[in-house]
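Review box. Two proteins, two foldings.
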Amino acid sequence: MPEHHDPFLAALAQGPLLCDGAMGTLLYARVPSLHGTAHCFDDLNRTQPEVIQAIHQEYLAAGARIIETNTFGANRVKLDNYGLAGEVRAINRAGVRLAREARDVVGLPAYVAGSVGPSGLTVATQQDTAFLADLRAVFREQIDALIEGGVDLIILETISNALELREAALAAREAGDLPVVAQMTFTEEGTALTGQTPAEIVRLLAELGVDVIGANCGMGPAGTLDVVTEMAEALQALPAGVPRPWLSAMPNAGLPARVEGRFLYVSTPDYFADYTQRFIEAGVRLVGGCCGTTPRHTEAMASVLREKQASAFMPPTIITEPQSLPEDDILLPEPGTPTRWQQRLASGQFAVSVELDPPKGLSPSKVLAGAEMLRRRGVEFINIADSPTARVHMSCIALARLLRDLLDVEPILHFTTRDRNLMALQSDLLGAHALGLRNVLALTGDPLRIGDYPNLTGVWNTDSVGLVRVLRGMNAGHDAGGAPLGGQASFYIGAALDVNVGDALIDVSIERARNKVAGTADLVTLTEQELEFSRYQAKLDAGAHYIMSQFIYDLAPLRRFHARFGPPPVPIILGLSPLYSYKHAEFLHNEVRGITIPADVRERMRAAGKRGREVGLEIAYELLATARQEGLIQGCYLLPSYGRYDLVGELAAALLAD
């Protein structure tokens, strides 16, 4: 079984990481409706998402490698002030989605941190157990929503009451096994509002298993440095056996001055750059800014960290030596020349691929860094989606060529008939072949109504079965109209299969059932499974060389398919995305069309608690190992949920080691 190593903590172990700066400061400056009104900053995630996403993108462009969600006050107590107490889940999930999308658009590798601020309750004493239970429940509700949305870590911040920070940390630890950053706000005297010293806060939080301890808000860089220096000394004095957390520092831009009715922060970016060096020398590994800081402060801090930062995000090695022109047999291999993917399947070896989405913006750096990590784990094959969920992404052909050239991984291109007419389909396929991209998965494509442009009209001159026929024709040396291509292509053709469909009865045209062009209104009644099998058979008849199945979390559907229709004549590659929490499992089961997670699997994830990632990997490994042992599959393709390349990397490494 694979062992789990959290990528954020692994990156901290290698060197300091830079967090972003203030969100509220920029929102107040950019959203006039916030001035002088009781307006919920957190609900801007839903009402003005473009503003939130723009701020995230600016911080990423400035050099931040951790961006915090706009959810600082998104707990039910604070939201109740605006009549939004019932919207905790929606507002937090929206905040995570915006941060993740900003990261995808910018295309730079970064971590999304779920921001959790103070509860808004007046904290009683430690003896008031009923109140403490309610307080922890407030934090737990918000943290659950953030984890469900797909954050990489939780940041507890700007909490000035030690008892409240303790309950927040316990809630985060109960919710799952994501890294937890716990930051106290100290007074100018260097103590918590409740009187504890930095050393006492260190001892309190270290015993709870918090991963990073630090200070934020309340003071400028100088005062914060004094606090974290004392914290560093306290960490060294912890008893043997108590894990030593990392240190964080996120000061305000000095103390605010009131100018013409507004509070302005006076610490300059250069001043922050100077203190960034001092924080690092004091042992701080997570550094950023709080109130009053801007992307300019982040950029100045990044300039200091650039030489020192040894994170997990190492750029792929780019070949810069002049290359001679390729030989003709590379551009146009002999007919039937197998791809590496084809050779792997033909040999009978178990094949493992990982599916990656192309970036939504101009930079492929994040995807390339993820692919490089996977390559180090032994992954040789990468599935590249074609504008999945009907949203705009970089060309799958362009990303495939980058992956092949820079990392020597072999791409498997997803190709949809949704966006291209028959002429464009063939033009792109000819170009892909000339670029050495010959593994193609023929798909119809997700419906446009679910994507960014629901009013567009899909092309669909043909469907996935027709695309398989086109590819087979190219392998025979002619296009769809019969015109010669000057040689025979060597595409290795894949097709999709959904074994999750049931026995519900549906009426379909006879032509659709037989996968021919509709010409009459005659109908035939089939089960969903029979219709899927008819299309599966049509794909095989059209020339598919291998089949990639939709995700399953239970082998029963695949076993039923085998029992009813017999062993497939071509390799079956099973899709799977490792679960990482009970919330993740419930979300997929209840809200994602086409995915069913059995009750026993969901119960196992529920019982796992904070071991969700570990148990999710165990479930995935066991399912694939059993399917492999029973001869149901010859390989798998793994999809990283919310971009968690680390999980699929560990799973792939374990499968490849067998």
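Next protein.
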Amino acid sequence: MTVDVRQFLILGNVKVGKTTIFERLAGNRKFDADVSTRGVALRAAELGYSSRKLLFKAKAFFTGKGESRKAGQSYPDIVLIDGPGASSLISEGEDETCCRDLLLEGKIDGLLLVADPRNLRRALMLLLQIVAFDLPVVMALNMEDEAQSQGIFVDREELSKQTGIDVVATVASEGHGLHRIPAMLHKAERSKIKPKYPVVVEEALNDLEKILSAAPIRPRGLALMLLADMSKAWEILKNNFGRGVEREVKRIVSKVSDALSRPASVVITESLYDQAGVLTSQVVQKKEGYKLPGALGRAAEHPLWGLPIAAVVLAVGYLFVGEFGAGMVVDAIDVHLFKELLLPFTEHALSFIPWQIVKDALFDPDFGLVPTGLFLALGLVMPVLFFFYLYFALLEDSGYLPRLSVLLDKILRKMGLNGKGVLPLVLGFSCVTMALLTTRILDTKKERIIASLLLILGFPCAPLLAVMLVVLKPLSIYAALTIFGWLAVQVLVFGMLANKLIKGEKAEFILEIPPLRRPSFMPVLARTGRRTVLFIREALPIFLFASLLMFTLDRLGTLNWLEDLSRPVVHGVLGLPDQAVQVFFKTFIRRENGAAELDLVRSHFDSVQVLVTLLVMTVFTPCMNSTIVLFKEQGIKVATAILVFVSIYGILAGGVLNWICRTFSITFT
């Protein structure tokens, strides 16, 4: 008996709970991908799945609980693909391109459209675009509990009647309503909505449908994307039709373009958005609800009240991550558990090893694999990193970050960016490598270069930031204010200079802000755990490698040679002890590894030298992954220019900070 497989794409706007639904449905099951899905592999690794696909067995889900596949019958299995958040299919954004290309390539047999009832209009605009592809659709109204608490009620029966598709209410964070989804997918139907377009667009769509009748996908879907000038649509046209058809399509598209005063993509989007608004008004009722989230959300983006709120968010984050995570938790784990208990126990347990060189390689206090590799990563970096990821995930899930984009838009415009640039810059505090990749969402080359420069120049990634907080903990609060204030000022100054010097256009900033919501703690905690585990998987081998390398260089005398070679700069310009060389050497391998080394040898550094070292390692030495991605994203010429500039500036900045502190007798103690 042969069983077909149908692939359903989970589609929806950003922050509507798509991935939470996917994870809840997936449970602990993992399946290898047999069809690659561009743009989602990175997120797959973050989640720990071998693919973003989940196979639902039809025998369990086809007819519902208690029923099974009858003998001799063959029903399709369902494969779910969790796509990235998309605001519209008519957009050249990376996430939108990923979802649209899956549809254009004919790899999708149906869609699970996830919607936020508090902003149903956005989801309905996606639905109106999906209709052109003539695919079965099921809609999940997620976070219904939060919508109702704010006085927003959706008439699901009327919505289903108007659209012709099944609509299910879910609360993904609690698992409510999800059990109904698999059966709905098997009986999913095509929407009966018929979007209305301006006359010139409708006529062109009809003409193109006839010409493209032999298309490998629904001709109207391909026609709509061609009118919107989506690059993948033109590629499909070229690969599947002759030159005569291509010329005729270009003639029709050109005719529409000439008839409209604005790009066809804008006209189509506005038309569908207006229709989505009319439909929303027919199915949504607003009553008196809980007003505090809305009022707080508006205040968070207000020019006056937004800054104090941002200051409070920053202060709470410092107390939670810096004081609690880097202080109390690190003391309990690194000092009391690892150094006082596990290290002596491990030395005793391995005392039978007959070779002294092996014992030294394992337990040397300066470069041993156990104290400076294993325990440093697990006892010092991991705890602080966990609390940073947790706090960052809470901000993500609450909907605060888009409000920060609005708040900082005016400042970022002076730096050649706009509010959209907040995302890659904020992600820089999580992972600079990831942030460099997300600069693709910026609309112009100028913006992408400026954002990349600023990320390399002054953004300590989460692991480095975690160790910095540990290193700064014994010093006065003015030490932290100095180092982070210096980084903030240099980002602002060099951003404005780059805006003046780098030629190029500025893009407009359009952002739809999701409602402020109470974070779902368990999904947030799960996401935090995954990110922490992924860090350990990636970083622990590098920590061990760096420790073994430093041990080898020390025993060969190479480390002393490097110290002598770099002494004019390290000691003369920066005013640092010889141990700074091993700190910088490890920083080249991985930033937080160098910072952890600084904590290990800090007895050789005074407070000013600690601060100078942290500044230099943040600016002067991006990690290898960031360097590789920088070259990949910006090209050899731009990447080389950025790295040369930050290297020279890093040494000069460290020298200036050292001179200021020594001249004015600033000690930070």
